[in-house]
Write a structure and sequence with these properties.
With 548 residues, the protein is α/β, with parallel strands linked by helices. The protein has 15 helices and 19 strands. The protein has helices at 22-29, 67-89, 114-130, 141-150, 154-163, 223-239, 244-252, 256-279, 297-310, 348-359, 432-448, 452-469, 488-500, 510-520, 538-541; strands at residues 4-8, 12-16, 37-42, 45-47, 57-63, 94-98, 102-106, 135-139, 168-173, 176-178, 195-199, 202-206, 286-290, 315-319, 364-370, 375-382, 389-393, 411-417, 479-482. Strand 15 (364-370) and strand 16 (375-382) form a beta hairpin. Helix 13 packs antiparallel against helix 14.
């Protein structure tokens, strides 16, 4: 066989004369963080480390210091949990949703005892010590379906049928099979950092994060957030749409329209409840609404304004994004990029001055931030009427520094986020972060002409900013509003797939684009013409009745 060359990131080249996998290349490369490497990119495609190369290629190792590497770790750890529950308790596990740097999971039998959780955790630790390989196999779809049906994973088998994937890449470990839409680590021995703790009616699988790559962040379960997830999960179970298989079935039965209307009715019902709670508090003059990027804060604030007005309360909305400092005063992050997620990117002094004067009945000329020029412009005069309620919305809306000129008893705080609870199947959750990313990808291209590649490259910084500046304040909220819509991924799919497909192979975010495209393959398509014009989803896909 002729010699071939593997080029590593950093322009190092190594020649080989026989097929090689990731471990051989890793050993020959002298890569410094090899103990944390869990996958690699081969010609820009994310691959398992057992992927074999027999021709010239460009490769890059993926370790757990990156978001992509950490996702490989979490998927692998989820499979380990599935295996351990089956062996220790003879039960399957339902990985429900994220919770405080972990995954909240439930058993079909109901509440696990502390001893049950301890048994599963001990078995996971033993399986890590055994260093069992996650073997990758390519099998025809009919065989894959039979395997998963025999294992009791009928939802997984049906999802493969809906997605029409043939052949199917499955993973085997010990005597069990699993399916994931992206690579796993090579073996259980890579998964030494984790914990499993009882919580609520189930258990939480804790794992390291990019910020804590070698240990576990402290487990601080957000009680209000957990309650929102619980309510939404119960609602999904009542509608029998807890997995993507159920959603495909509804589309096939022609019931997508009803699901859209029911989802929107749930939003209206919740916003009506929040408006009534605000109206019942006679001293409240300022409503502070916050949430991470892609939450739908703008539309939520405008719909809340309408609900308040229906109760006889005059309400006005104010966007904190208009209070950005001009570009030459914007702070930068460690890499020298503008840090728009930082609190210091806002003109805090001007915000508080305007809040104080508006609530005192004075007229204020509002700023308008021009995102194209990076300059502040000036807009209309605003003066609140007697007892009018001012709604401010922005990612830092719950930070006390933003509204320190207003007393606490005059404030009402709302945290907004699309808390996705509709999963691909019982073992593959749908990420709330991915949900927000797809929303932002579509909106940024439509409203700001931002290329999808730029949005993907900026996203890790956005996520870090949310973890630092937004999530720590979420439990301060008086109430939380889940802005997720059961059907939204099905509608976003038609917009996001073409955008993601434009990202070139040589882009550093090409692998992330392919991961998202692979994920979207499992989502049924809903056309956007059935989406109401006051829907939060319209903030991202266009056609909102609230647009100027």
């Amino acid at each position: 066989m002729r010699k071939f060359t593997i080029s590593l990131t950093g322009n190092d080249e190594i020649s080989f004369s026989s097929p090689v996998g990731g471990p051989e290349v890793l050993a020959a490369s002298g890569y410094e963080s090899r103990r944390n490497v869990v996958a690699w990119r081969v010609n820009h495609y994310l691959r398992s480390l057992d992927w074999t190369i027999d021709d010239d290629a460009v490769v890059e190792f993926v370790d757990t210091s990156s978001f992509e590497g950490m996702e490989v770790y979490r998927r692998s750890l989820s499979f380990l949990l599935v295996l351990a529950c089956k062996r220790a308790l003879n039960q399957d596990i339902f990985i429900r949703h994220s919770l405080s740097d972990g995954y909240y999971c439930e058993l079909p039998s109901g509440f696990p005892s502390e001893e049950d959780v301890a048994r599963v955790r001990r078995l996971m630790e033993q399986m890590v010590d055994m260093d069992l390989p996650f073997r990758r196999k390519l099998v025809p779809i009919d065989q894959a379906k039979r395997v998963f049906e025999r294992q009791g994973n009928a939802d997984k088998a049906r999802l493969l049928q809906w997605a029409a994937i043939d052949p199917v890449e499955v993973y085997c470990c010990a005597d069990a099979h699993g399916f994931f839409y992206a690579p796993l680590a090579p073996s259980t021995g890579y998964l030494r950092v984790f914990d499993l703790v009882p919580y609520g009616g189930g258990m939480v699988l804790l794992f390291p994060t990019v910020a804590y790559p070698d240990g576990l962040p402290p487990f601080q379960p957000p009680k209000k957030l957990a309650e929102v997830f619980r309510e939404y999960t119960e609602w999904l179970d009542i509608l029998n749409v807890s997995t993507m298989d159920n959603l495909h079935k509804l589309v096939a039965e022609g019931k997508a329209g009803d699901l859209i209307l029911t989802s929107e009715a749930l939003h209206s019902q919740r916003l009506s409840h929040i408006a009534k709670d605000i109206a019942s508090r006679s001293r409240v003059r300022l409503v502070c609404m916050a949430g991470p990027s892609g939450s739908g804060k703008t539309t939520a604030s405008l719909r809340l304004r309408i609900q308040l007005q229906a109760l006889g309360k005059r309400a006005v909305t104010l966007a904190l994004d208009d209070y950005f400092l001009e570009r030459d005063r914007t702070p930068v992050d460690a890499e020298g990029n503008y840090d728009f997620e930082a609190l210091e990117a806002l003109d805090i002094e001007l915000i508080n001055d305007h809040l104080r004067r508006l609530l005192a009945g004075e007229a204020v000329r509002l700023p308008r931030f021009n995102f194209l020029t990076g300059k502040r412009e000036w807009g209309e005069l605003l003066q609140l009427g007697f007892n009018a309620i001012l709604i401010i919305e922005g990612i830092h809306g719950l930070n006390e520094k933003v509204s320190e000129s207003v007393s606490d008893d005059e404030k009402y705080r709302i945290y907004v986020s699309p808390l996705t609870a509709l999963n691909l199947d019982r073992h593959n959750r749908t990420s709330t972060t991915d949900n927000r990313l797809l929303r932002r990808l579509v909106r940024d291209y439509r409203t700001r002409g931002k290329l999808p590649e730029v949005t993907l490259r900026q996203w890790p910084s956005v996520v870090r900013g949310a973890q630092k500046h937004i999530f720590p304040y979420q439990e301060r909220a008086d109430i939380m509003f889940n802005s997720a819509l059961v059907y939204e991924l099905s509608t976003l799919k038609g917009y996001a797939e073409p955008l993601l497909s434009t990202i070139p192979e040589e882009s550093p975010v090409y692998g992330e684009a392919r991961r998202l495209i692979s994920f979207l393959r499992f989502i049924p398509f809903f056309p956007s013409d059935r989406v109401p014009n006051d829907s939060i989803l319209r903030e991202f896909i266009g056609g909102s009745c609230f647009s100027a």
